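Shall we go through a protein fold together, starting from nothing but its sequence? Label the sequence line and the structure token line clearly, so we can match residues to local backbone shapes. Would you write everything just below, so we can both look at the same thing?
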Amino acid sequence: MLVYPSGLDLSSSHLRFLAARIRERRRAIGSRWRRLSAGRQALLTLAHLRNAHPYAQLAAGFGIGTTTAYRYVTEAVDLLAALAPTLEQALREASAKAFVLLDGTLLPIDRIAADRPFYSGKHKKHGMNVQVLADPAGLLLWASPALAGAIHDIRAAREHGILEGLASAGILCWADKGYQGAGPAVRVPFRGRWENLSEGQQAVNRSQAKIRALVEPAVATLKNWRLLRKLRCSTTRITSLVQAVLTLHLTCSN
């Protein structure tokens, strides 16, 4: 296999943060020797998350075995995922905002037609449903654990306790039509065909559409990490990957 140098479009703060967490982990478990230093293990993990390079390619580039590469990445991802904010923590931060934006996104996965629980009729593909909370500037505040893609957004929001949390905290939220019936804390557009809506309802829907569009940068924040654009791992690992990306974004973008 040929090996070549490559760049990574991340700041050095990402590398320093993750390397520090890995060093803490190694001290805690008394790890004396590794094939890669903490900094190199951090770089390996960032390359996998950001560029979606498979383990075999990463292993060749870093001079380690494929199994070792998998083990190192999994260890670092789990460290990051454990640091991700909970919904309660995100809502406490959101309470200082004028409002929040709620939306669901589908992370595509490599499944076949037989895997119906993962098939999203809305997106016409297999994937995992992740709920996203953003602030009025479109900055990502929180991302939920991943659920099967067949689950609708309103059900996912209920299962995660998002709707109950928003209502309890008194936080105003804007969302799309997929959240009809979410309760008074969540503002959604009027339903019905455009020509059947009154002029006032049409004006409200236009205004809400402009507000809801602000959530798109938060969704893009997740999918800028190329691994989340097409996941080929076990579905049980996807929540950890999303939470790891969330931790890196919140910690290193401030």
User: Anything to note?
Assistant: DSSP finds ten helices and seven strands in the chain.
